[in-house]
Amino acid sequence: MVLKLIKRKLKLNYRKKKWPGLIEAYRKYLPVSSKTPIVSLQEGNTPLILSEKLSEIIGNNTKVFLKYDGLNPTGSFKDRGMTMAISKAKEEGCEAVICASTGNTSAAAAAYAAKGGLKSFVLIPDGFVAQGKLAQALMYGAEVISIKDNFDKALEIVRELSEQFPITLVNSVNPYRIEGQKTAAFEIVDDLKFSPDWLCIPMGNAGNITAYWKGFKEYSQKNKKLILPKMMGFQSSGSAPLVENIIVKNPDTIATAIRIGNPVNREKAKLVKKESKGDFQSVTDTEIISAYKILASEGVFCEPASAASVAGLIKNKNRIKKESTIVCVLTGNGLKDPDCAIKNNDAIFTKNVEPDIKNISEKLGF
Ligand code: F0G
């Protein structure tokens, strides 16, 4: 009876503890004041899921966790940066924001701008933005322009526009984006009570790897015992400017989110690699799709770019020390890119079947 009551009370407490959004949760680590109008959709607090399957694949008593940031309000980690960028833009009296995007930034910018009552403009590479992301930007009310060129060109244009006109740039060159995104590292340490040995993460413009590293470093100032992770950044082999240390003129990959040839945070990323004694490597599209399927086979659906972190981990299996703890960042939700999922799965899908019990039960093998 007493036990029952305690259990019931605990359950009630779970419901009572409403997550306030990441700015409120980590206010003391963020450049906000009582004057900042907080624009939030209660982003953050995403699950850190133990992957039994990946832990088994890596072996050696390694624990592999998935930071499933695809469960943010617009389905990607960009919400973490955007709650900060839009709140600060509003505080500064700005009325409109602009970004270039492979899709997720535009979805998040449009949603948070809508929530904050700001206008949003978006430039995207024509034909290379996944359907779900485009649908979001349009629905949240952004003004969208697709250009006959790639993301790098779009970013060049919006940077110039934001210098010429009274409009705030919300790509990851905006420092508030990095501030918001660093909270994912805080959440990982809060959940594990230590930091992982490796953090595996996909890289495009390299804003997120920069943000995570900043987060881990800031938490280590609070907790001197915290041993910082090796930052393992992964790119697709058709689009690997940071791995090859070049500018890729025509980046090409199935992971359209990271189809970027000239990352703006290149120098910061190099520093992260050096300071963390990490590594940058490329994975092929085939390896990305294989990881994408392994994740889904365990009930976790992410977008192809996110699976690059897992593809990279698998590639490094033999380098991982016994009893390591590894976190792979799953940056975006699988629903963002339904076309990729429909084209790349091993499911049995029989179409146009007569609605007849006997016929269907035979097809199902009963
Ligand atoms: N994963 C996903 C799902 C992304 O959308 C992006 C970037 C990245 C990884 C790479 O993050 O640029 O910080 O290294 N997407 C940007 C966009 C470029 O426009 O949505 P990064």
Rg computed from alpha carbons, rounded to a whole number of angstroms: 21 Å
Ligand kinds: ligand F0G
Q: Give the low-pLDDT segments.
A: none
Order of helices and strands: HHEHEHEHEHEHEHHEHEHHEHHEHH
Widest β-sheet, arrangement of strands: 1-2-10-7-8-9
Shape: globular
Distance between the termini: 46 Å
Question: How many helices in DSSP terms?
Answer: 16
Mean pLDDT: 96
Say how many strands there are: 10
Percent range for β-strand residues: 5-15%
Helix content percent band: 40-55%
Structural class: alpha/beta
Largest sheet: 6 strands, mixed
List the helices and strands and how they pair.
Layout lengths: L1 H15 L5 H4 L22 E3 L1 H7 L4 E6 L9 H14 L4 E5 L3 H13 L2 E7 L5 H9 L3 E5 L3 H14 L3 E2 L5 H7 L1 H10 L5 E5 L4 H16 L7 E7 L4 H4 L21 H11 L2 E5 L1 H12 L7 H12 L9 E6 L7 H6 L13 H7 L3
Parallel strand pairs: 2-10, 3-4, 3-6, 4-5, 7-8, 7-10, 8-9
Antiparallel strand pairs: 1-2
Helix pairs in contact: 4-5, 4-8, 5-6, 8-10, 9-10, 10-12, 13-14
Ligand F0G binds next to helix 5, helix 10 and helix 14.
Question: Could you write a compact summary of the structure shown?
Answer:
The chain has 366 residues and is of the alpha/beta class. The chain is built from 16 helices and ten strands.
Question: Can you characterise this structure?
Answer:
It is a single chain. By secondary structure, this protein is an alpha/beta fold. Helix content is 44%, strand content 14%. It is built from 16 helices and ten strands. Strands 1-2-10-7-8-9 form a six-stranded mixed sheet, sandwiched between helices. The longest helix is centred in the middle third of the chain and has 16 residues, at 207-222. The mean pLDDT is 96. Ligand F0G is lined by residues 76, 78, 101-105, 172, 202-208, 257-258, 303, 305-306, 331-332.
